[in-house]
Amino acid sequence: MNFFGYGAIEDVEIVLDGAEKRKKVEHRISESKSAELSVYYDGETVSGAVSVGLKSGTKIDHKGIKIELIGQIEILYDRTNLHDFTTLTKQLASPGVLNQSKVFSFQFPHVEKPFESYFGSNVRLRYFLKVTVGRRLTDFTKELEFIVHTLSTYPEANNNSIKMEVGIEDCLHIEFEYNKQKYHLKDAIIGKIYFLLVRVKIKHMEVHIIKRESTGTGPNVYHEDDTIAKFEIMDGAPVKGESIPIRLFLAGYDLTPSMRDVNKKFSVRYFLNLVLIDEEDRRYFKQQEVILWRKADIPHRQGSKSLEESTQRFEK
């Protein structure tokens, strides 16, 4: 005999509408595990069905069945520090007795999903559905995570090229130029390096893509730098007047959009780091921030905002 239905629930399953046709991506869900998850966008409706399966010949006395859509930020070095920035609730069943397995439909229309899903070194931002079957002592819960991608657009008129100089007085003068400062995640960084004065014997030059994750606020901000990619752009000594072209394709790397002060919890910024190494293994650096953004690559979906409405437009 199962007191109050304990042990009577065989399984609870959450199935999203149209899941078989929806775009999916591989995404980290824990420190050691990844899963293929459905992708949603800001303003899209999230709907589906919840199946509560009971073991044969059993029933449960429950205090209600509900489903929640939750957007949550978790600081990984402080697991007690959970912040829910979105919580929507639908009641699937009022308190009572469930005598047999049952399927409940649900719908969260035109859900605001303001932030990109993210799993970093010290912080995780995730969206998930959570079903709770209320019971007298211990509730039964089941979760299903999904991914949110934020779309952006930048006017070309406000996407100026970057020009910088690296110099050591009377020894080295290098000028480098990138074609713009803002790149979508499948873009190519195109540029050129000019050697105006070379009295240092340079033997090697690289460009690194650095991701800087910042968590916390005020004096308690913690920065974590991660080198995403390294590109060798020169092997050998340059001469005065020489120029070297740069072409870096971003599509093959694990990049996210740049994120600034997400709900006052964390930021993710990207930098291009030019590294020069001379024959005595001395290193010279020059760093420049670039803005990464996600470009729309999907048709308009039924039950979503128009692409213009769901896309962030930046004028600066």
TrEMBL record:
Cited Pfam families: Vps26
Q: Which GO terms describe its biological process?
A: intracellular protein transport
Keyword terms: Protein transport, Transport
- Answer yes or no on keyword Nucleus: no
Looking at the record's lineage, which domain of life comes first?
Eukaryota
InterPro entries cross-referenced by the UniProt entry: Arrestin-like_C (IPR014752), Ig_E-set (IPR014756), Vps26-related (IPR028934)
Q: Which family does it belong to?
A: Belongs to the VPS26 family.
This chain belongs to which protein, by name?
Answer: Vacuolar protein sorting-associated protein 26B
Q: Which organism is it from?
A: Phallusia mammillata
